[in-house]
Every structure is written in C-alpha cells, then in structure tokens.
Amino acid sequence: METIILNELQENKKTPCVSIIISTHKKSNERTVDKLQLNKAIEKATELITFKYGTNGNGAGQVIENLKSITKQLDFVHNDIGLGFFVSPDFTKMVKFPFPVEEKIIVGESFEIRDALYLSEYLMDYYILSINEKEAKLLKGSGETLKEIKDENFRSEERRVGK
C-alpha cells in the first residue's frame, strides 16, 4: 500500500504541489496542539501558493480549497507520530507516519517524498521464526504489527520435537 502512495506522489504532474508534514501526538492532552499546528501549516502553505502562483489559474485556487477541506476530514483522536498531506489541483492524500518527522511545508512542481519513501522501507514485510522446545511459530510483520501464520505447517498446538 505504501508503495502505491509513493507511486501516486511521484506520478502527479499537476502543479502546484503542496507537501505538509507535521509531527503529532498520541496522548489525548497533547492532541489539541496538533489541530492548531496543522491550521498554521495550512495558512503558511496558502501564503506560499499565493506568493508563488497567485490565486487565479495554474490550479492554485483549487489547491487552496483542497487545503481548507483537510481539517474537516481529519480524525485527531487516532493520530500517529506524524502526518503528511499531499495536495495538488486534482489530488489530495493524507499519510500517517509511525516514526518521528520534522515539520515541512513545501510548495513546488513536485511533492516532497523523502518521508513517504522512508515509510515504504519502514513498513516492508518481514518474517520471524520462533522456535522453542515445544513448538515452532512463524510470524509475519510489517512495521510494528505482527500476525501469526497458521497453516498445515504451523499450527498453534503443541508438538513433540523428534517424534
């Protein structure tokens, strides 16, 4: 899925492209700051768009409208450690980052994809084989999520080794 997001960001050809990346908080008493931080970032991005592209033509007006609609759709209760917003005239995407990010507000001809690239590597699938005296388990992981694989070779029942 993260590779799909990365491909979408790289293939976007409509300008202006706005990338907003902010750090967020998981604790409820700190989440109120997140909405304020996002609103300030959107204001700054709007100023940059207006300065660089004006408000008429070039898709700038549509990007500003798309930016304004972001906070209406966002659930600040289920934040991760970072959020990324990628907006162009006909594209809007929000990405949650499970790792610390630095705030970035970039307006240009393409999206800032370094954090999305790191996300695709960070969430690469991996396997863990857990073996003890009684059983062997195979786990599939992605990021911080682990799921046990149960099939004809790996069952959760106890097995005697060597018999």
* Percentage of residues in helical conformation: 25-40%
Shape: elongated
Largest sheet, strands/sense/barrel = 4 strands, antiparallel
Strand content: 25-35%
Compute the number of helices. 4
* Strand line-up across the major sheet: 3-2-1-4
Q: Please provide the count of β strands.
A: 7
Estimate the mean pLDDT confidence: 83
Low-confidence stretches: 157-163
Radius of gyration: 21 Å
Overall SS class: alpha+beta
Order of helices and strands: HEHHEEEHEEE
Give the terminus-to-terminus CA distance.
42 Å
Nutshell version of this structure?
With 163 residues, the protein is α+β, with helices and mostly antiparallel strands. The protein is 34% helix and 28% strand.
Mind sketching the topology for me?
Layout (H helix, E strand, L loop, with lengths): L1 H10 L5 E7 L7 H23 L6 H14 L8 E7 L2 E7 L6 E5 L5 H9 L2 E7 L4 E7 L2 E5 L14
Antiparallel strand pairs: 1-2, 1-4, 2-3, 5-6, 6-7
Helix pairs in contact: 1-4, 2-3
Describe, in plain words, how this protein is organized in 3D:
With 163 residues, the chain is an alpha+beta fold. It is built from four helices and seven strands. The protein has helices spanning 2-11, 31-53, 60-73, 114-122; strands at residues 17-23, 82-88, 91-97, 104-108, 125-131, 136-142, 145-149. A four-stranded antiparallel β-sheet has the order 3-2-1-4, sandwiched between helices. It has a three-stranded antiparallel β-sheet with strand order 5-6-7, with no helix packed on it. A hairpin with a 4-residue loop joins strand 5 (125-131) and strand 6 (136-142). The longest helix is centred in the first third of the chain and has 23 residues, at 31-53. The radius of gyration is 21 Å and the shape is elongated.
